[in-house]
Write a structure and sequence with these properties.
- The complex is a heterodimer.
- Chain A is mainly alpha-helical.
- Chain A has helices at 11-38, 43-46, 60-66, 74-79, 86-93, 104-135, 141-150, 156-170, 176-200, 204-212, 217-228, 230-246, 249-254, 262-265, 277-297, 299-312, and strands at 67-70, 97-101, 270-271, 274-275.
- Chain A has a two-stranded antiparallel sheet with strand order 1-2. A two-stranded antiparallel ribbon of chain A has the order 3-4.
- In chain A, a hairpin with a 2-residue loop joins β3 and β4.
- The two termini of chain A are 35 Å apart.
- Helix content of chain B is 72%, strand content 0%.
- In chain B, α3 (26-55) packs across α14, α5 runs antiparallel to α11 and α13 packs antiparallel against α14.
- The chains are: A mainly alpha, B mainly alpha.
């Protein structure tokens, strides 16, 4: 554009804005970088004063995260054969021996199963409901939609009491199925609202043309609407996945062993005298990293999804 | 092809049924599509809510299923509303709500306004700023207890570097009144990006020609800001406040791992208190009444707020 525009900010104001925003971004990222770097510190380095920015990297945190260790008597310890693997060596350096694997792997896998299971279910059901709300005449449509939204206002603890009792009666406490259904119920309101917005934007004419060509409603839905709504479905999937992945309140109240996800487990990682910070940081890094990578790779869908919900209502 | 299971089912289906399947009326499809969602919400949201209401009139205790359950009428509600502890928790919640919303609105709007200058690399900056809100509040809350350690924590060290106040002379999570602010800081760090994104959507929805017209009328930049930018972003900002307000009223995970409600009861938000009553003291009836009171409060406040929001939108 060669013409001078009154709405285009001046070069100087762009510079100032850029510097201020970059400054905020740097400050806001420090805690995240600190989590990642603490994961690679040795125990003493992690609690030194002043806090160490430069340090000798160590895999102690990761080793401690995946193993349980015990102390044995001085003589027995000295009588041991030399360590065989690098894992052994790191544990021995702390004056301990490996007792077995830790539960972190299992908890992480639980997070994956429950996260993906509930996300699939909420996006699947949400897409169907959103399509119906967008295209068909449904009695009391607005009331139903508001009802769906209002279920999100309930404090989790408020419904946790009867759900706890109900699950205990039905044998759903501490099971994958119970947690998947619960997270689906929480996520589905968001899924319906977001997807309805996306489907509303697809012109009806496409489907009508398909119907005239002899498609049934189902075929038109599958072959015309679904491909068009792909962006919206992707954005919704990410939101549901992030929620289920991060959820803590229900997980800590309704699961204790078999189906416990990672968020209630990570804060319970303890070492000698309190929390084992390098191990906690290692767990946090492994747990947060997928979401960070997701956010960076799929930023366009995500940002659109967030603002989309807002503009619509 | 013909001997695939699907084809066999198709052949075996009587023509009448097939026609009916194919020709399902739109109404039937609508109900088939909506029913699972409604059913799930009824089973896992509404049924439990009704159960909570029922329990709230009893003295039931979930850890003693054998005990005889008595109807106590409104006594649970009376006890909660006349208890001084409840009001103290409500004040703590209000403090948390007010200051987190205040900081998030100020910072979020400013950031959005700056990012809207469209400097080079604003996309990248936006993505990086958004990261904290995507992360697990529980895991992050837990890690912040490490950053807040008086002697070795990064936060105290940064304060010492910037202000010269010795790092070990104060404790963000210990007694001394700072704990209230420690949860405000972490929540603001996590959720400012959310307010920022919604404001950004608002700013980008303002068409250029309005500013061009104002420029022709020789309105100053200052005047343009207050008479165009602010009023047009306001509905978006209010919406962001609504979402954050509801979420923070329910706040549990981040704070319970950061302070656990302590020291003493300094950061005992209503939902943390509720969890103690329900799952530590096992006063199920009493805490059901507590839950209903909280739900009615958030629902009532949100409804009033939405009315105000609609009035702003109409203007």
């Amino acid at each position: 554009m060669s013409a001078w525009s009154v709405t285009e900010p001046t070069a100087r104001s762009k510079w100032i804005a850029g510097i201020l925003v970059t400054l905020y971004a740097v400050v806001t990222l420090i805690p995240l970088l600190w989590i990642i770097s603490t994961g690679f510190k040795s125990g003493p380095d992690s609690i030194s004063y002043p806090p160490k920015v430069f340090f000798q990297p160590s895999l102690e945190g990761y080793v401690n995260l995946f193993t349980t260790r015990t102390r044995i008597g001085q003589e027995a310890f000295e009588a041991l054969p030399p360590p065989e693997t690098w894992v052994d060596r790191i544990v021995r350096r702390q004056g301990m021996v490996i007792a077995g694997p830790s539960k972190f792997g299992e908890r992480f896998l639980n997070s994956v199963i429950i996260g993906f299971g509930s996300t699939f279910l909420s996006v699947f059901l949400g897409t169907l409901a959103a399509y119906a709300f967008s295209r068909f005449r449904i009695p009391l449509k607005d009331d139903l939609l508001f009802f769906i939204l209002s279920t999100r206002m309930m404090p989790p603890i408020a419904v946790a009491i009867p759900i706890f009792l109900m699950y205990r009666t039905l044998g759903l406490s501490d099971t994958y199925l119970g947690m998947i259904l619960l997270y689906t119920a929480v996520n589905i309101s968001l899924a319906v609202w977001l997807l309805k917005g996306f489907i509303d934007e697809i012109p009806r004419e496409y489907e009508e043309a398909a119907l005239i060509d002899g498609y049934t409603r189902f075929q038109a839905f599958r072959k015309v609407v679904l491909p068009q709504a792909a962006t919206g479905i992707a954005a919704t999937t990410i939101f549901c996945l992030i929620f289920a992945w991060n959820e803590y309140a229900f997980a800590v109240l309704l699961t204790s062993g078999k189906a416990q996800t990672a968020p209630p487990f990570i804060p319970t990682i303890i070492g000698v005298g309190g929390q084992d910070w390098p191990a906690v940081a290692a767990a946090a890094t492994l747990f947060l990293l997928p979401v960070m990578i997701f956010t960076i790779l799929l930023r366009r869908h995500l940002l659109r999804g967030i603002t989309f919900g807002a503009v619509r209502k | 092809m013909t001997d695939s299971p699907i084809a066999r089912v198709a052949e075996a289906t009587p023509p009448g049924v097939a026609r009916r399947l194919r020709g399902l009326s739109d109404t039937a499809i609508a109900w088939i599509f909506v029913a699972p969602t409604i059913f799930l919400l009824l089973a896992i949201n509404i049924f439990p809510l009704i159960w909570t209401i029922r329990l709230s009139f009893t003295n039931f205790a979930a850890n003693r299923p054998g005990r005889e359950v008595e109807w106590v009428g409104l006594r649970n509600y009376e006890r909660i509303l006349t208890d001084e502890g409840t009001w103290a928790n409500m004040q703590t919640t209000a403090h948390f709500l007010f200051w987190t919303l205040f900081f998030q609105v100020v910072l979020g709007f400013t950031l959005a306004w700056l990012i809207n200058r469209k400097f080079r690399g604003n996309d990248l900056a936006t993505t990086l700023i958004v990261l904290p809100m995507m992360l697990s509040p529980a895991v992050v809350g837990n890690f912040w207890t490490f950053l807040y350690q008086p002697q070795i924590g990064l936060f105290n060290y940064a304060v010492e570097l910037l202000t010269g106040r010795p790092a070990s002379s104060f404790s963000m999570l210990g007694p001394g009144g700072l704990a209230k602010w420690s949860i405000v800081i972490v929540d603001t760090w996590m959720w400012t990006p959310f307010v920022m994104l919604i404001c950004l959507a608002g700013l980008r929805s303002i068409p250029d020609y309005i500013y061009e017209a104002a420029e022709i009328d020789r309105a100053s930049k200052w005047r343009q800001f207050w008479t165009i930018t602010v009023p047009m972003v306001l509905p978006f900002l209010m919406l962001a406040v609504l979402f954050r307000g509801i979420e923070n009223f329910k706040m549990f995970d981040m704070v319970v791992l950061l302070t656990g409600g302590g020291p003493g009861n300094e950061t005992l938000l209503a939902s943390i208190d509720l969890k103690r009553e329900a799952f530590e003291k096992w006063r199920t009836g009493y805490s059901s009444a507590y839950a209903i009171i909280l739900f009615v409060t958030v629902f009532g406040l949100a409804s009033i707020y939405v009315k105000a929001l609609n009035r702003v939108k109409e203007r």
